[in-house]
Hints:
The chain is of the alpha+beta class. The chain is about 40% helix and about 15% strand. The protein has helices at about 5-10, 40-50, 75-90, and strands at about 20, 30-35, 55-60, 60-65. About 25% of the residues are buried.
Amino acid sequence: KTSYSILKDSLKNxxxxxxxxxxxxxxxxxxxxxxxxxxxxxEVRAHLLTKYSTGVIALGDVIRLAFSSVxxxxxxxxxxxxxxxxxxxxxQ
Length: 92
């Protein structure tokens, strides 16, 4: 499997749609997710780095993932960490 196909398959988990939606992307190097529920991308980015040791880029109202630089086995973990970081803010 390719990193792209692993990411596409992982994004099919319906729970993720509670906090973010993927923007159209191809098999390149990056993809973006738009956060929902009034989540602040910069706050989520900082929390993700601090609590989950996961680095992403916040650009306006989207989170940019450089999935090409993530080991394939860690792609589902990346999405799960993002989900958990969003949930942490929603539970406050």
